[in-house]
Structure formats: C-alpha cells, structure tokens
Design brief:
It is a single chain. With 381 residues, this protein is α/β, with parallel strands linked by helices. The chain folds into two domains: 106 residues, Transcription Regulator spoIIAA (2-Layer Sandwich); 246 residues, no CATH class. It has eleven helices and five strands, in the order ββββαβαααααααααα. A five-stranded mixed beta sheet has the order 1-2-3-4-5, covered by helices on one side. Strand 2 and strand 3 form a beta hairpin. The radius of gyration is 38 Å and the shape is elongated. The N terminus is likely disordered.
Length: 381
C-alpha cells in the first residue's frame, strides 16, 4: 500500500485537521487544541479528485484539550459523508468520545425547530378560545361586584365612604378642565358643520336642534366616557396593578378583606355618581359652543338659540343621556379595576394593564352605546 499523500488543508489556528487520501479511503486526523471560542479549521472535501468509498476519522498524538467544538466538527464531517453517500467510520475514536458524540448527534437532531405555522382554522379557534376565556373572566368579576354590592347594601357601615369621596374628587372635579375643553370644541365643530348644511336650505335656526339633540342624547355622555376611560380607567388599572405587584392585595386577602369590597366598590360608586353630572356639564358646554358659532357665523341671537334648543329637547332626551352616562361610568370602572387586579407583578405588567384597561373600556362603551341605540328605538325613546 502506498503512503497517503496529505492534502494542503492545514489550518493556521490551534486546532488542526490533516486530510489524506489513499486507495479510495479518506483519512481525517484531528489534532491540536480545540476550543469553542477559537476559530474552527476549514473542511475542504471539494478538493478531492474522486469521491472516496470510506471515511476514517482518527485522533492525532498531539491532540490536546478539546470541548464541544471537536464534537461539532466530527458531526459536520458525518453530515457531509451522509449527504455524499460515503461510509463514515469512527471506531478509532475513544469509547467515551463516541458516547458523547452519539448524545450530541441525538440532541442536534431532536432540537430541530418544528413547523409552528397555523392554518386559518387554528388561528380562528385559538382566538375564539381566548375571547371565551376573557369573557368568562369578565363575567366572574361582574358577579363578584354584584355580590359585593348586595353585601354592602346590607352592611352600609362597611362601605369606605372616605375612599369613595376621594375618588369622586379625582374622577369628577379633577376632570372638569379636560371635559370642558373637549365638550366646548365638539359643540363648536358640530355647530359649524351643521351651519354649512342648514344655510343651503335657509334653516339656520335648526342648528340649535341638531347640536342640542346630539349633545344631550349621544355625544355628551360618549365624549365624557371616552375621556374618563383614558384618564380614570387607566389610573384605576395602574393603581391596582401597582398594589398587586407590591403584594398589597395579597395582604388584604390574608387579613380576610375582599379586594372587591375594599378597592373596587368605592371606585365604581364614584364613577357611577360623577358620570351623569359630568355628562350634564358637557351637554351645557356643547350647547354653549353651538351658541357661539351661531352668533358669529349665522347672526342668531343667544336668546333665540336658547329658546329653539329648549323646544327641541324634552325630558326623555335628557334621561336617555343620563342613563347612558351612568352605565358608561360603571363600565369604565369595571374595565379599569378588572385589568388592575389581573395585572402581572412587574412594572411592565402595570403598564400593560393600564393600556388594556383603556382599550377594554372603549370597547365596552361602544358596545353599550350600540345596545342602547337599539333598545331606545324599540321603546320609542
């Protein structure tokens, strides 16, 4: 047998690979120091004149320290041999190294990422399952609030009136500036848009009817609820989420105090009482904004505008707006408290709870408004 001639595959790094071909057998000898942090030697199977029949992997006498990089290299050699249809023999390797190589190969084959793509039916099913789970959580929380309200009605001395008054100040009096600005601007915009349309038919005075009815029946309560969802609902979620992260809610439960009685009910009562008052205030400012536009653009005197507004609005219009405002306030409070009590125990969880409280509050407001529109139409209100 002729002596195998080495191919020029010596790597300049510490780990060395000697490749020699003899009688259709490719000898791969590994030597040097193999470290995972060092550069791996190059593997040049493409330089062979013909595909060998067998491939023998062995260790040189100067093999020093080695780690998983050596196993990875041998694994790559085996992968190349399998792809080329060459028989790879590892009998010359130590038994312990062959055992670790077998474990390494098994782990690399089982660690392949699976196809996690889902078809349309799976995505719809998972979304429906998630929606049902959240609906179940909301229904459970509403049931706890109803039970707590019944409990506190029978024992009014356990209701935290001081906390309720503080929340009424925060969500009521402290919200007046932003409610004033938004309601006045909405009234101005509505009156201006209505004036452009009414002037074409010579019905300038009916701007008062349009602004008054829309503000009293719809936009007064709606805009106030949207403002409080972004201001008060997020504040409720952030406060309760921070208390949950600091284990204060767990401390209340340890002392036998239900968090719904102690934390949720004062906030719900405060929002339920202040929302109708804020809605009335928003209605007045919206009508006042329409009066300003009518005076400046249509030359309608304030007295005539006010008389026309009173003739267009009756008690049923005001009552429908107040009913909406009360329900909207309860929904905003429920969304904020619900997301706050379920917040994750971290700073990021508190932020996510505040964001989801706003989104959930707005969604509930829109759904409730659609329900009221259908219900009031059926009852002729």
């Amino acid at each position: 047998m002729s002596r195998p001639e080495p191919l020029p595959t010596v790597s300049p790094c510490e780990a060395r690979v000697r490749v020699a071909e003899s009688a259709g057998v490719l000898h791969v000898t590994l030597g040097g120091v193999w470290r995972v942090t060092a550069e791996k030697p190059d593997w040049f199977p493409g330089r062979l004149a013909a595909k060998p029949a067998r491939l023998l992997v062995g260790l040189a006498e100067d093999l020093g320290e080695w780690d998983s990089s050596l196993l990875l290299f041998i694994h790559e050699v085996r992968v190349w041999a399998r792809a080329e249809g060459v028989d790879c023999e590892l009998e010359s390797l130590p038994e312990g190294m062959r055992g670790m190589l077998a474990q390494f190969t098994q782990a690399s084959e089982t660690a392949r990422p699976e196809d996690r793509s889902k078809n349309f039916a799976a995505v719809v099913g998972l979304a429906a399952q998630d929606a049902m789970g959240k609906t179940r959580e909301i229904a459970h929380f509403v049931g706890e609030c109803v039970y707590s309200a019944n409990y506190l009605l029978r024992r009014p001395h356990k209701f935290r009136l001081r906390d309720c008054l503080e929340e009424m100040q925060q969500c009521g009096a402290m919200s007046l500036p932003i409610v004033s600005l938004i309601s006045l601007l909405v009234g101005l915009i509505m009156a201006y848009q209505s004036a452009i349309l009414m002037r074409q038919f010579g019905a300038d005075i009916y701007v008062a009817d349009a602004v008054g009815l829309v503000m009293v029946r719809e936009l007064g309560a709606m805009m106030t609820a949207v403002i409080l969802a972004g201001r008060t609902g997020a504040a409720f979620a952030a406060t309760l989420g921070n208390m949950r992260a600091n284990d204060e809610i767990d401390a209340l439960e340890t002392l036998g105090i239900r968090p719904v009685d102690f934390l949720v009910m004062p906030r719900l009562v405060a929002l339920g009482l202040m929302m109708p008052l804020l809605a009335l205030y928003a209605n007045f400012l919206g009508i006042f904004g329409g009066m300003i536009v009518s005076l400046g653009l249509l030359d309608i005197p304030p007295q005539a505008y006010w008389v026309q507004t009173i003739s267009a609005i009756d008690l049923s219009d005001i009552s429908t707006g107040l009913i909406k405002a009360s329900i909207f306030g309860l929904l905003v409070g429920l969304a904020g408290c619900h997301r706050g009590l379920l917040a994750e125990r971290s700073a990021a969880g508190v932020g996510q709870a505040a964001t989801s409280a706003v989104v959930m509050g707005l969604l509930l407001i829109i759904l409730a408004d659609a329900f009221f529109a259908v219900a009031f139409n059926l009852f002729g209100l």
